[in-house]
Amino acid sequence: MLKTIKWLLLLVLLLCISLYVTLHASLPELGGNKLVAGLEQAVDIERDNLGTAVIRAQSRRDAAFGLGYAHGQDRFFQMDLLRRNSAGELAELFGDAALKLDERHRFHQFRKRAQALLKHLPAEDRAVLEAYSRGVNHALSQQALPGFEYLLSGGDIQPWQPEDSLLTIFSMYLDLQGNTVERELVLERIKQLYGDEMLAFVSQNDPIQAALDGSTLPTQAMVAPTLSAAALDRAELSTIGSELDAFVKGSNNWAVTGHLTQSGHAMLSDDMHLGLAVPIIWYRAQLNYPHTGGDMGERDIQVTGVSLPGAPVIVVGTNGHIAWGFTNGYIDTADWIELAADEATETVTERLDSTGAGKDMTLRLSRFGPVKHLGDKDYALSWVAHGDFAINLNLMHLETATGVGEGLELTRHTGIPVQNMLIVDEAGNAAWRLTGAISARDNPTQTAQAANRWQANGWAIPAEDVPIVSNPTNQRLWSANSRVLSISDTQRFGDGGYAIASRAAQIRDNLLAKDNFDERDFLAMQLDNRALFLTPWHQLLTKTLKLQPDEFADDLKALANWGACACSESVGYTLVSKFRIRVMDSLFAPLQTRLAEEGLSLSKIKGNLEVSVWQLLRQQPDSWLPENMADWDSYLLQIYRNNRDELLSRHSQAGKLADLNWGKVNALKIQHPFSKQIPLLAPLLDMPQVAGFGGHFEPAVQSPGFGASQRLIVQPGRESDGILMVPGGQSGHPLSPYYRSGFDDYANHRPTPLLPGEVKHMLRLTPQ
Fold it and tell me: Lower CB density within 10 Å: C or N end of the chain?
């Protein structure tokens, strides 16, 4: 027996050694000299202690080659997933289990659209994409072994094509506007099932508003519509779990003009909130190349920030003259058109290939767009992502801009998902504008519209009437996914699912509280986790539990000591935030249960439900109360009991309330996709787990797998004082020294310098 155990241990050891040797052989070479084809002149790729890729080239095309080479070395699997995701081709890598997602995304035919868009790009932009692709593919050709992801999955590596960079951006459309597309269908179905009264009830304006011009949309005290007994029979007390908790909106940015900084330079803060995984979505990079153009003649460009692996541009960053950052715009960018019975459509077959059986997908197309059946009607989708102006490389022009005015002009028609762009310059100027693909159609609606209201010409061209706010009198600008526009502009551009304005209001008030700011002040604002939005919910829960003070003595004590913040040690914050979600889950379970039968979810309109739920709690209509509940007090108490029991079963083996501290319940868990399927790989692949800090409605947004994907703070011209924090390393290879580089700074809220540090590795690419 002992001899057998020894042999087994030896076998495990040999397997581990073999795995290590194999993984080590797939590490990229970061130093030395390489002869490569496809370059005009030599390119240097330097890496500092964080692995930041510093590209030094003699042209923008060669800089794209160098960035593609670095992306290919460090992040190719991530790039592969992004292109396959939008194209609906994941099953070719992961088998039939991915067919359902592929079918949803193939509905948009993004690969065909990418191929068509590529042909119409300016020649120089195509040349940049081609150079980038050559760089990626040359990096792949230098690998002794494919990345470990392909060794585990058995998938084949397909060369990178220029169209794949456009597919990468289409993946961002799905991520940033996918809920906008579905939101209109949810509201349309609610209208069909429950009528106009319910539609109005669940789509009210929130009284918390923080538009830049101080305008407020009208609010009213609506009477809750009657909910039929048949609807209540369809759902139990807590049917949909954390459905309304699953969809979190984030992203903040703000700026001040030079009037409010010691240096006189304007200052920008930007923290885009996205799903967090390993590797992290962004890639730290600096591009250096000469540029000829404008009034300044030939000059050297140095642009520093984050890039998206798969695309040859710096997405957010600074060039020493200007700096820019984004939050998702959430204007209405899609219309569903109700089709008449005699509307002409075309049926095509899309083949979904797979490592398994695969399938043929039937897709109907109309003059408006692809067709979906819902209820007893057909609807066609018109979406800016389907348009001729959906994607271009105009964002790249910011790299050479020297001031706010020039930057705004160069990005008038930028082909990206529409964003709130904040742009500042070294002269002290600051401006906000919607930047991205915006259609000229001017009749957005919350539900589907008739075919005779569809504006064919409006969908064919980009909008020209996009508002700008530049150097406001209060010297401050902000956005946080809520409404930024004036009332008239909101009517023009529509509501694509704005976030509750609690974060924006908190940021605005923080900006108005001081008259001078530096980088540390802005970082403190990014980390602001004061729970102002949840205070009414705290009051409601406290009042409810005081009905049974003996039963809930410990709970009331935790609420009294909650700290009014999304702090790691706070048990009270956990109780309040989870109580809110469970109340909303329970009240709207009848609607959600019915919608879920058709693949729809109230999570797409959950921001609007905040107003509705408080009206229900105040009015306490009998028709919304489950039959087994005597009154609303009993109902809320039972919701809390169920919720607490579930939290304790999940987070405490001993059943102790102290184990429900927010740091544990909301722990930051940044995981690799493979470790979710193979938990034994978690210690090797995942980032270290960190106590939760921040919530959903505070500027410091964080949930276990969602939060600030980067934190940028910079004054153009003073980059040496700038901050760029990223919650993960540069490399996707677990044996790379750059796999977790920078994560500790992010997890412990230590500012990481924006500019690259001392060179640790230098790779020279020389034309063959």
Answer: N
